[in-house]
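Lay summary. Proteins are chains of building blocks that fold into shapes, and those shapes determine what they do. In this project we predict the shape from the chain. Here is one chain we studied, written as its sequence of building blocks.
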Amino acid sequence: MGVTFDSTTLFRRVIEPESGSLAPDVARYIVDLDFRPEDHARFEQLSAKAQEGKLSVEETEELDGFLHVDSLLAIMRLKAERSLRP
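And here is the predicted shape, written in a compact code that computers can read:
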């Protein structure tokens, strides 16, 4: 069994979210990052279709992209939140 490359794990190692080392203004900016409303709506639409087992190959790739970006944002937000702690 081979090792699968996981870019999210690699990103986590680079960002080191456990270390709260961001400047407060940068941390606040990151905490506020979010998808646009139309992207939230598209994500919900794709998620619903996925639960029904009705995604096309293209939609599966699109949903995977949303999930990947969401994972990266979660890592960045964790670092930002730790950076804002007193």
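What the prediction tells us: The chain has four helices and no strands.
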